[in-house]
Design brief:
Blueprint lengths: L5 H23 L28 E5 L2 H11 L5 E5 L4 E5 L13 E6 L4 H9 L3 E3 H10 L4 E4 L5 E2 L1 H9 L2 E5 L10 E3 L5 E5 L8 E6 L8 E12 L2 E8 L2 H20 L5 E3 L5
Parallel strand pairs: 1-4, 2-14
Antiparallel strand pairs: 2-3, 3-4, 5-13, 6-7, 6-11, 8-10, 9-10, 11-12, 12-13
Helix pairs in contact: 4-5
C-alpha cells in the first residue's frame, strides 16, 4: 500500500483547491467545462435510465420516399440536408440547430441512391480492353441502349455497330506515322496499322442511353471507341467522355429532386457536413 507523505498530501490539497476554484469560476460564467482529478472516471448514467435523455440515431435507406418521410417526421429546428456528389449520398442532419442555438448534430437520416445494372455495365467497361468478340457480345447484351456515331456524325443502329465490330480487319502498311487515332494505332516506327470493316462505316462513338440511378432521369452517355493491336489482333476499348460533367449534373439533379420533395421543410445543399 502506498504511504501518504506530508508532501503528497499538500500537493493533493493544493490541486484540489485549484480544481474547485476553477469549477466555481466556470459555473459562474456558465461554461460547460469542469476540472476532474486525474484518477476520476466520468460515467454517463443515461444507460441505466428507462429512457434516453434525448432522441438521436441514424436511419439509412435507398428509397427517396422513405428518406423524405422519415426526415420530415423527425426534423427539428435548423434541420438541413446535404448531398455528397462523390458517392451520390444524401445526409439529413435532423438536430443541426442554428448558430445561436446549435444542436448535437447526431440525429441523422442517410440515403444512398442505387445504381442500375446498365450504369454499372458502362462503368465496368469504361477503359477496359476487349477483343472483337467480347465487345460485340457486350453490345449484343445492351443493344436496346446502344447507338453508334461515325466521325462524320452518321448515325448507326445497334445492329450496324455490332456487325461493323465483328468485321473489323487489320491492314499493315509501310508508312511511318506516330499519331494514334481513335481507330488507328502505330504498331512500330515503320509500320502503321489501320482498321476497316469491309467498306461498312465504323463507329467512332457509342451512344449509351440509360437511367444511371434509381429515381433519376434517363440520360445518354457518349463513349469514345479506340483500337490498338497486339500481335495483329485488334483490342477495342470504350471510354466515357466527360464523366465529371455527368457526375456534377447527376448530383444537381439529385439535390433538385430532394428539394422538390422537401419544399420549404428543409434546405438541400450539395456538399459534405461533419460536426
Amino acid at each position: 500500500m502506498e504511504t501518504i507523505t506530508s508532501t503528497s498530501m499538500l500537493e493533493y490539497i493544493q490541486d484540489n483547491g485549484t480544481r474547485l476554484a476553477f469549477n466555481f469560476t466556470a459555473a459562474e460564467q456558465n461554461l460547460d467545462v469542469a476540472a476532474l482529478p486525474n484518477d476520476t472516471k466520468v460515467l454517463d448514467l443515461e444507460q441505466f435510465k428507462p429512457r434516453r435523455n434525448r432522441f438521436r440515431g441514424k436511419f439509412a435507406t435507398s428509397s427517396v420516399e422513405d428518406f423524405v418521410n422519415y426526415t420530415e417526421a423527425k426534423a427539428d429546428l435548423g434541420a438541413e440536408c446535404f448531398v455528397y456528389p462523390d458517392d451520390m449520398t444524401a445526409t439529413a442532419v435532423l438536430n443541426l440547430g442554428s448558430i445561436n442555438a446549435p444542436g448535437h448534430a447526431d440525429s441523422l437520416a442517410k440515403m444512398k441512391l442505387k445504381t442500375t445494372a446498365a450504369f454499372d455495365a458502362i462503368n465496368k467497361t469504361d477503359g477496359a480492353a476487349r477483343s472483337q468478340q467480347q465487345l460485340a457480345e457486350w453490345l449484343e447484351d445492351w443493344r436496346d441502349s446502344v447507338q453508334g456515331l461515325t466521325n462524320d456524325e452518321q448515325a448507326l443502329t445497334a445492329n450496324q455497330v455490332i456487325a461493323a465490330i465483328r468485321r473489323i480487319t487489320i491492314k499493315a502498311g509501310s508508312t511511318s506515322d506516330h499519331t494514334e487515332g481513335q481507330l488507328s494505332a502505330t504498331r512500330s516506327s515503320l509500320e502503321q496499322v489501320e482498321a476497316s470493316s469491309n467498306n461498312e462505316p465504323l463507329p467512332s462513338f457509342i451512344l449509351f442511353k440509360c437511367t444511371p440511378y434509381q429515381g433519376l432521369a434517363e440520360r445518354t452517355f457518349v463513349l469514345r471507341m479506340s483500337l490498338r493491336t497486339v500481335e495483329d489482333n485488334p483490342l477495342l476499348s470504350l471510354r466515357i467522355i466527360r464523366p465529371e460533367q455527368h457526375e456534377e449534373e447527376m448530383a444537381e439533379e439529385f439535390a433538385g429532386l430532394l428539394q422538390e420533395k422537401f419544399g420549404d421543410t428543409l434546405p438541400v445543399t450539395i456538399g459534405a457536413f461533419s460536426a
